[in-house]
Design brief:
With 303 residues, this protein is α/β, with parallel strands linked by helices. It has two domains: 7-128 and 284-299, 3-Layer(aba) Sandwich (Rossmann fold), CATH 3.40.50; 133-283, Rossmann fold (3-Layer(aba) Sandwich). The model has no long low-confidence stretch (mean pLDDT 98). The longest helix is centred in the last third of the chain and has 20 residues, at 280-299. Helices cover 42% and strands 14% of the residues. It has helices spanning 12-30, 53-64, 85-92, 106-115, 130-144, 159-171, 187-195, 206-209, 230-236, 244-247, 270-274, 280-299, and strands spanning 42-47, 68-72, 98-102, 120-122, 150-154, 174-178, 200-203, 215-218, 255-258. Helix 1 (12-30) crosses helix 12 (280-299), helix 5 (130-144) crosses helix 12 and helix 6 packs parallel to helix 7 (187-195). Helix 2 links the parallel strand 1 (42-47) and strand 2. The structure holds phosphoric acid mono(formamide)ester and norvaline.
């Protein structure tokens, strides 16, 4: 495959190949072996929203694999002066070997991909965050031995949730989503994922969703671009904080995950963030290893 835009079209074999490569690259790095499959290659990053983890891990991944990263935003380029996407995409592809984009519209990323001669990677849109769920599932494999687990999503039916839904529908693990009415995942995505046989259920009560869960996952209530809704959302999501009491209703060895950045005292308590069941720092680290796997496999056409 050329691009990574959603997780919808990734086969189980492609998921597994990415997990295997990321785990292998992580192991080799820890052994002091520096693989350089991106020697002589450059990766462009076009980010129209803020980022700490995704940007720095993609840039570091590129450099550690022997390549060079080039960070761009709209206002430093002619994109901000309305050069058409179809022109920018074709020009950039004559220079760089991969384009990683973080922006608002999923359609924009797809337009870049359709005109770009080199791989395009979605590093978060309002609709999806595919790279996040790939590194999260790598973390689940490390923590639980496989992805055949029950994941409970507690919070907004947002971009991260949408990517979890596609992963669950292809890989067959159980996904329980607890969200208030009005904050469900996109209904077209849910319908299609269920039609594909996904074991995905929506609950209103977080206590119901977390029963027998191996992983409790949450994310901010107001995503980037929804800042004006912050106060109203805090009211709508009352009772959805992941705290010790909620963790206590899941399996005794359940782990807590969060893509970060987190808002302590809103979607998660300080105690859970810092507690023994939290695997958020491994989760954040694995973005580096998974992004290496994504870049290597797309640029070197191994996927
Ligand atoms: N999880 C994540 O994508 O973090 P950043 O917004 O810092 O990249
Ligand atoms: N749902 C969040 C994820 C941040 C990594 C957002 O889009 O802001």
């Amino acid at each position: 495959m050329k691009d990574l835009l959603t997780l919808k079209d990734l086969s189980k074999e492609q998921f597994d190949a990415l997990f295997d490569r990321a785990l292998e690259l992580k192991k080799r790095k820890k052994e002091g072996i520096m693989d350089r499959p991106l020697e002589g290659k450059s990766v462009g990053l076009l980010f129209n929203k803020p980022s700490t983890r995704t940007r720095i891990s993609f840039e570091t991944a590129t450099i550690q694999l022997g390549g060079v990263s080039i960070f761009m935003n709209e206002n430093d380029t002619q994109i901000g002066r309305s050069e058409p996407v179809k022109d920018t995409a074709r020009v950039l592809a004559r220079y760089i070997d991969c384009l990683v984009i973080r922006t608002f519209s999923q359609e924009l990323v797809e337009e870049y991909a359709s005109y770009s001669g080199v791989p395009v990677v979605n590093a978060l849109t309002d609709m999806y965050h595919p790279c996040q769920i790939l590194s999260d599932l790598m973390t689940v494999i490390e923590a639980k031995g496989s992805y055949n687990v029950k994941v409970a999503w507690v919070g907004d039916g947002n971009n991260v949730a949408h990517s979890w839904i596609w992963a669950a529908s292809t890989l067959g693990f159980e996904l329980a989503i607890a969200c208030p009415e009005g904050f469900d995942p996109d209904s077209a995505i849910m319908d299609e994922a269920l039609a594909r046989g996904g074991k995905i259920t929506i609950f209103r009560d977080p206590k119901e969703a977390v029963k027998e869960a191996d992983i409790i996952y949450t994310d901010v209530w107001a995503s980037m671009g929804q800042e004006a809704e912050q106060k109203a959302r805090e009211a709508s999501f009352e009772g959805y904080m992941v705290d010790e009491a909620l963790m206590g209703l899941a399996k005794p060895d359940a782990s807590f995950m969060h893509c970060l950045p987190a808002h302590r005292g809103e979607e998660v308590s300080e105690e859970v963030m810092e507690g023994a069941s939290s695997i958020i720092w491994d989760q954040a680290e694995n973005k580096l290893h998974m992004h290496k796997a994504i870049l290597d496999m797309l640029i070197n056409r191994k996927l």
